[in-house]
Amino acid sequence: MASGSFARMCDDECGSRAKKEAAMLGTKRRLRMTARGLRTVGDWETEPLAALRDACRASIAVEKLIGESILKARDAGHSWQKIGRALGVSENASDWNEVAQDLATSRRHVWDRYINSRDN
C-alpha cells in the first residue's frame, strides 16, 4: 500500500470515528464518571433496552481495563494471591483460574442481591 493511500485510510477512519463520537455525545443517554462513581446522565427511563446496551458497553470497557491491569500486575511480578486481594475477591488464589472463579462468583452475588431485591 502506498503511503498516500495509507494516510487517506487513516484520515477516513479518524473522520469516521469523530463522527461516531459526535453522534454518541448527542444521544439522550450517557454515562459519566464522577468523583462519587458512575452516574447516568439524560433520559434512561423511556428506553430501558437502549440504556441497558449503553451500560453493557461501559461494563465491557471496564472489564477490558481490569484485564489489562491484571496483565500489567503479572508482568510486574505480582502473585495471583496479591492480584486476587487487590480485586477484593480472593486471599488464597494460586492461579488465574481461581481468581477468575472468585471474580465470577463475586459478580454473581452482586447481581443476585440486586435482581432478587427487585423481584421479591
Description:
The chain is 69% helix and 10% strand. It is mainly α. A hairpin with a 2-residue loop joins strand 1 (29-34) and strand 2. Helix 3 (80-87) packs parallel to helix 4. 7% of the residues are buried. Mean pLDDT is 79; it is low at 6-11.
Secondary-structure topology with pairs:
Elements: H1 3-25, E1 29-34, E2 37-42, H2 48-75, H3 80-87, H4 96-119
Antiparallel strand pairs: 1-2
Helix pairs in contact: 3-4
Tell me the β content: 5-15%
Average predicted local confidence, pLDDT: 79
Shape: globular
> What count of helical segments does DSSP give?
4
Structural class assignment: mainly alpha
Number of strands: 2
Cα-based radius of gyration, to the nearest Å: 20 Å
Observed structural traits:
120 residues; two-stranded antiparallel ribbon; 4 helices; 2 strands; globular
